[in-house]
């Protein structure tokens, strides 16, 4: 039986201990090799630090190690007997908001770190808002550096109450608070002996046991076709399969389906996977589907249920995070749009407002959208796209915009 994969991201202000926490998770869960530990032990000694600086496990760039900050998104992989994990360690600085959006876009869980000495600060609110906009299903608020406030219960409760009051305005479904010390290891993997008053789970216990199977949309069947499989061998002479990754719903052998944009209907004759033929497929499985009828299907088409179809439209309303440092978003500007397995060109019809990330107010008088800004825009594409609202399906509800001249990804967008 394959182990379930959990993706989580860390976020928080500068020096809140994100990299140290990940280092502690890796070290205490026995997920690093002895030579890696010895290397960071030597690096810590060279820097004149007491003990071992576990943050060096994730701060891979030289500039990060020199400044003691995270600049780029660092991905780390580890596993326990219960689960496999992919961690996205994202930067805390305001100017790297776009990096947090990148790291958090596929996460099941967001860990927001708060320094127990400073409480809820502007960046805490900013990252909570982004986690809410990105519809990350589970939020864990890690109140870190409890060792520096003498593990006092009243400090933890004051920060928890302040964050809960603020989060009441956001769209967050599942929220958990854990008081920790990433440096000392309290409540990270092992339960703290210094905070006997805390009765909740340790961070690792929560990550191993949080229920994520229902995070996927298992109702709306969506299968964007990535590639047509034609082996052209004697053994598979008439084989014509459509390969891709299930974006939503449960497909079963014999189901009646419709192909977009042609509108032709057929039934599923067979579903093949890496391990052989299967009876049903669901997110996030990668499979090859064979249909009973010969229909002209190519990359960018979508196989869906007859009575449950996505919105087919050239006009989309998007919430975007702007990534481009060189140029702001251009009204009437033309960009490439990539959605699921489709690619088209589009024009920005309207910039509705810029979202003030700190207050959630809509700034109607600020049409200039600069790097890291979050804004609502309207676009028109050169061909119909098959989309769902982002809150309904994070795969069919997300797009990226690409500058045709530089081929840089300039924005990530969510369909409203």
What would you say this structure looks like, in words?
The chain has 416 residues and is α+β, with helices and mostly antiparallel strands. It has 3 domains: 212 residues, Rossmann fold, CATH 3.40.50; 84 residues, Translation factors (Elongation Factor Tu (Ef-tu), domain 3); 105 residues, Elongation Factor Tu (Ef-tu), domain 3, CATH 2.40.30. Helices cover 17% and strands 35% of the residues. The protein contains 7 helices and 22 strands. A 6-stranded mixed sheet has the order 2-3-1-4-5-6, sandwiched between helices. Strands 7-8-14-11-10-15 form a 6-stranded antiparallel beta barrel. A 6-stranded antiparallel beta barrel has the order 16-20-18-17-21-22. A hairpin with a 6-residue loop joins β18 and β19. The longest helix has 15 residues.
Number of helices: 7
How large is the share of residues in beta strands? 35-45%
Task: Please tally the β strands and state the result.
Answer: 22
* Oligomer class: single chain
CATH fold node name of the largest domain: Rossmann fold
Mean pLDDT: 88
The spatial strand order of the largest sheet comes to 2-3-1-4-5-6
Category from helices, strands and their pairing: alpha+beta
Basic shape: globular
H/E topology pattern = EHHHEEHEHEHEHEEEEEEEEEEEEEEEE
Extract low-pLDDT stretches: 60-71
- CATH architecture of the largest domain, please? 3-Layer(aba) Sandwich
Q: For the CA atoms, what is the radius of gyration?
A: 23 Å
**Cα separation of the termini:** 37 Å
What would CATH call the class of the largest domain? Alpha Beta
């Amino acid at each position: 039986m394959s182990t379930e994969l959990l993706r989580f991201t860390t976020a928080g202000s500068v020096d809140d201990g994100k990299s140290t926490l990940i280092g502690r998770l890796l070290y205490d869960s026995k997920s690093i090799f002895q030579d890696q530990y010895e290397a960071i032990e030597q690096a810590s000694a060279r820097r004149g630090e007491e003990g071992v600086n576990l943050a060096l496990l994730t701060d891979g760039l030289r500039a990060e190690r020199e400044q003691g900050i995270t600049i780029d998104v660092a991905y780390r992989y580890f596993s326990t007997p219960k689960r496999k994990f992919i961690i996205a360690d994202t930067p805390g600085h305001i100017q790297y908001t776009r990096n947090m959006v990148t790291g958090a876009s596929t996460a099941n869980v967001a860990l927001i770190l708060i320094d127990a000495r400073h409480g809820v600060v502007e960046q805490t609110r900013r990252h909570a808002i982004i986690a809410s906009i990105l519809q990350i299903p589970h939020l864990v608020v890690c109140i870190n550096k409890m060792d520096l406030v003498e593990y006092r219960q009243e400090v933890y409760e004051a920060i928890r109450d302040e964050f809960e009051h603020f989060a009441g305005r956001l769209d967050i479904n599942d929220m958990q608070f854990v008081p920790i010390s990433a440096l000392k290891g309290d409540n990270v993997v092992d339960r703290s002996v210094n905070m006997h008053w805390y009765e909740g789970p340790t961070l690792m216990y929560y990550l191993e046991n949080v229920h994520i199977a229902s995070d996927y949309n298992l109702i709306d069947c969506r299968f964007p076709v990535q590639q047509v499989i034609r082996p052209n061998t004697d053994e598979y002479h008439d084989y014509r399969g459509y390969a891709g990754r299930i974006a939503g719903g449960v497909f079963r052998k014999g189901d009646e389906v419709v192909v977009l944009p042609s509108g032709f209907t057929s039934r599923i004759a067979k579903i093949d996977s890496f391990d052989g033929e299967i009876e049903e497929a669901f997110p996030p499985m990668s499979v090859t589907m064979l249909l009973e009828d010969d229909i002209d299907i190519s990359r960018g088409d979508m196989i869906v249920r007859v009575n449950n179809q996505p919105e087919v439209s050239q006009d989309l309303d998007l919430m975007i995070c702007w990534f481009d440092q060189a140029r702001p978003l251009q009204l009437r500007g033309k960009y490439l749009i990539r959605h699921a397995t489709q690619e088209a060109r589009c024009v920005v019809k309207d910039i509705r407002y810029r979202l003030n990330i700190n207050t959630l107010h809509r700034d109607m008088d600020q049409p200039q959208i600069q790097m890291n800004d979050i804004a609502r825009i309207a676009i028109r594409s050169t061909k119909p796209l098959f989309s769902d609202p982002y809150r309904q399906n994070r795969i069919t509800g997300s797009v990226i915009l690409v500058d045709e001249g530089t081929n840089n990804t300039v924005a990530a967008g969510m369909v409203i």
